[in-house]
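Allow me, if you will, to draw on your knowledge of protein folds for a short while. The matter concerns a single protein, recorded as an amino acid sequence and a row of backbone structure tokens. Could you please explain, in whatever detail you think fit, how the structure tokens follow from the sequence? I remain grateful for any guidance, and I place the record below:

…
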Amino acid sequence: MMKDVKNKIRDMLSHSFLKRFVSFFIFRSLNKLEKKYSVIIAAPGGGNIGDQAMLESFVYNVPGEKIVINTNGNAINLPEKYQKNVKVINLAGLVYGWLLPYVRDAFAFKKILSEARSLSIVGADIMDGGYNPHPSAMRSLLASYAQNLGVSSRILGFSWNASPSKVSLSAIKKAGNAGVMLCARDPYSSARLEKSGVKSVVQVSDTVFANQNTDTENLDELLQFVADKKIAVVNASGLVNKDLDQLQEYDVILKKLRSLGYSIILLPHVIRPGANDLDVCKAIYERNNDVFFVDRLLGPDQIKCIVNQAKIVVTGRMHLSIMSLNALVPSVVLSTQGKVDGLMQYFDTPECSVEPIIGFGEKIASIIGAINRDYDDYKSRLSINIGQVRVLSAKNFEGLGQG
């Protein structure tokens, strides 16, 4: 009983409403100093290559000195080429956790804002409350506070599903009303936000399209494997695996790829507790041990190098499909949180977004067959659209690092 009471108190103190109340007093004014830094609040990271890729794209595209705010216990490790002029500051209580750590880190955040040229927040798929409503709301509210204090703020390339949490919708409306630039990363998300009365919405595409860097480091064995072969890169999502046994579905997919002469690279894209691709990929490998199994977490630029060698990608992770599409490689993606349909709309390939339900293996096998038959047509669709998608991606960063 006492444990239940403690948990309820902790939940209450974690609630964004209480943080909003104390924020009224914390963010009433700002002691403005020389504007030095472009500040970004990073996504959770911690073994998620998509989160890492979005952060690296920000660092790559924004000139000048930058501060990266890390909001949880997952370490942020940038490759050497992305470390110049970058300072990482850990504020674990700013987005997650209960009230007292928030108050401590809100004052530290306010001090950072006093020297900030701008504030950017990685939006991705964590703004609409589909995973965790109150941290979603806090990101929007922090952008509002900064904007109201005169620090130009934006939420970078994010999805918005058809059923957002009430607290997340309320918070993003507040951000839009304050003038925060809300960068919706696909036409569906943009339309949903505007239909809900959210202001300051700008349609962009995902930030990762704006960074085409690659890296071959520690890929010698894999690059030897792909030489003179017709390559398919395949990923299975640990997140999807929480709700659906995917092993038989992937047996069907891999059988289809083999029948068409593909050599297969099996690639985990997220390796962390709770949504671990490595476990499900390993289980698939044990049933299909003729594939090249990547058993470690690679960096985004290494992933981009690999998909550049492929003719097709099948994935449960959206950012792996973004990297492949950016390399003009057709990609079939399992759609989670309603975030993939808008991406595929950009490339005129809506059929390549597939719901993760029983029988998806047969559906993907059929799509693989269609892509293989009409490969030039699929490549043409990607080639026609990629230029505008990259322009939209660059809009996320317009004006940052200046003034």
In short: The chain has a mean pLDDT of 94. Residues 375-394 form the longest helix (20 residues).
